[in-house]
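tokens incoming
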């Protein structure tokens, strides 16, 4: 066996390690943890609406572009969802209906791990690549990627754009003739397409343009201006499909209002989300921040452009939820791995110098796996699945003169999977009802709203006062109690376990 084939086998074996770790942390008990989030209901409703040919705006609002729902709808359509799970109005079937889209998110996370390995290998070498991908695979806060979020769909698009840009090569012979070459043109355009699609999934990722643009220019030799111009075409044109579609529908003014609304919501500062990150995953957060600080000292523009513009944008926008930090997870992993390797290289004894990075990452991996295992074995969603089933059964017995009111998480499935006819109102809405009868999903979110001293609170309190209890949904078995002020169960503040839910109606 030749030396090159031995090296190739070694690389395959090395990349297998983080992929196995990522498969476990991303796919184990994927319907049990984390708890289902209200936004997962929004995105499933949009994807199913797109899949069924109902258009791209089922909620008549322009809060996010379309590619996330288009991609998810396309994948679901190709595998025959929802018919593939033979849906029935019971909790097990409801769980299967959530299993498929969450499995897709988990597979995206495994793909992210592979892309981080290849990006880091290309930029910093094999050792840093192995460490960075292992750190990413076992990040306790990586459970965010299990949810059906736009960030989960967007991240592999961004990472693919970065990787393609890194493969651009300067060719002196072609530069003399002011040519880029077919290979480089293809890589530049594809990198731009994937970043354009990432922006078309969720707009804030446009702040990664300096990072990818920097890589394109750095790798293009004397053809920098031509390369960046070619790359910018898809980066700009693809996201422009969003306002163009709104304009074609006569909704451009609505589009403008909704986009501006996204920048003018109540204050939710970046510092709070970073504090939550620190509380939920202190090791990764500390290592990543130290790595970014080290990159600033070393003037490592790759890591700095991967992190600082995004952090500044989140600081400026002043509305940052926990899942908005997802694009930082790769750079925290890469920066931390680079710091570990570079500090280890300062050790004068070669044997210790060579083994220290792997020893440190092994400790990080063990701590991470223990933390992740403690979380992903939790059953957070049994009450939610049972509630879906109860609502579906209830609506099947009613005519179409009923309105369902409550958490948007419950709204999509009865209509788009079981073809039931009913009106719906999110608990965010104060729009008058169009039907004489209504059913209320009285969960913790609804309880908070009816206590508000606001127009919304008053509206829903009046509705609540007209209802009576129909059914209390509880888990089949008592749920364990976790101390969510102790790590890693601090994560349960962002992934609460629903222990009871009441269904109420006015009939």
């Amino acid at each position: 066996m030749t030396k090159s084939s031995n090296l190739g086998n070694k690389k395959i074996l090395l990349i297998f390690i983080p992929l196995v770790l990522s498969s476990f942390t991303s796919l184990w008990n994927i319907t049990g943890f984390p708890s289902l989030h209200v936004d997962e209901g929004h995105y499933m409703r949009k994807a199913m609406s797109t899949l069924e040919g109902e258009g791209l705006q089922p909620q008549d609002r322009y809060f996010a572009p379309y590619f996330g729902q288009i991609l998810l709808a396309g994948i679901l359509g190709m595998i025959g969802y929802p018919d593939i799970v033979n849906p029935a109005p019971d909790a097990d079937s409801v769980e299967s209906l959530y299993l498929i889209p969450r499995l897709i998110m988990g597979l995206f996370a495994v793909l992210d791990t592979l892309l981080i390995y290849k990006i880091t290998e290309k930029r910093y070498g094999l050792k840093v690549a192995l460490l960075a991908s292992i750190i990413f695979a076992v990040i306790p806060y990586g459970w965010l990627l299990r949810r059906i979020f736009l960030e989960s769909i967007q991240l592999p698009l961004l990472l693919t754009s970065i990787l393609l840009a890194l493969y651009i090569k300067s060719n002196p012979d072609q530069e003399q003739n002011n040519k880029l070459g077919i290979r480089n043109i293809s890589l530049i355009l594809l990198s731009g397409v994937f970043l354009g699609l990432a922006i078309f999934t969720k707009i804030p990722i446009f702040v990664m343009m300096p990072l990818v643009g920097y890589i394109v220019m750095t790798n293009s030799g004397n053809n920098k201006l031509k390369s960046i111009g070619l790359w910018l075409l898809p980066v700009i044109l693809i996201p422009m499909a969003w306002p163009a579609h709104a304009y074609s529908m006569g909704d451009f003014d609505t589009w403008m209002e909704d986009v501006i609304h996204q920048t003018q919501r109540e204050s939710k500062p970046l510092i709070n989300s970073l504090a939550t990150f620190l509380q939920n995953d202190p090791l990764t957060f500390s290592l990543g921040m130290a790595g970014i600080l080290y990159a600033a000292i070393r003037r490592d523009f790759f890591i700095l452009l991967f992190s600082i513009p995004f952090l500044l944008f989140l600081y400026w926008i002043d509305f940052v939820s926990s899942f908005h930090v997802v694009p930082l997870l790769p750079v925290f992993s890469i920066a931390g791995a680079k710091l570990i390797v570079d500090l280890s290289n300062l050790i004068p004894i070669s044997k210790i110098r060579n083994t220290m990075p792997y020893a440190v990452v092994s400790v990080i991996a063990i701590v991470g796996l223990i933390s992740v295992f403690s979380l992903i074995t939790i059953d957070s969603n049994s009450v939610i699945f049972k509630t879906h089933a109860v609502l579906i059964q209830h609506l099947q017995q009613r005519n179409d003169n009923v309105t369902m009111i409550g958490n948007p998480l419950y709204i999509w499935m009865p209509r788009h999977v079981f073809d039931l006819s009913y009106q719906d109102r999110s608990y965010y809405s104060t729009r008058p009802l169009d039907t004489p009868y209504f059913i209320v999903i009285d969960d913790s979110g609804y309880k908070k709203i009816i206590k508000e001293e606001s127009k919304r609170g008053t509206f829903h309190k009046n509705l609540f006062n007209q209802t009576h209890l129909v059914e209390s949904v509880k888990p089949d078995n008592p749920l364990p109690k976790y101390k969510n002020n102790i790590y890693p169960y601090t994560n349960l503040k962002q992934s609460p376990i629903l222990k009871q839910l009441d269904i109420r109606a006015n009939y």
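note: The mean pLDDT is 92.
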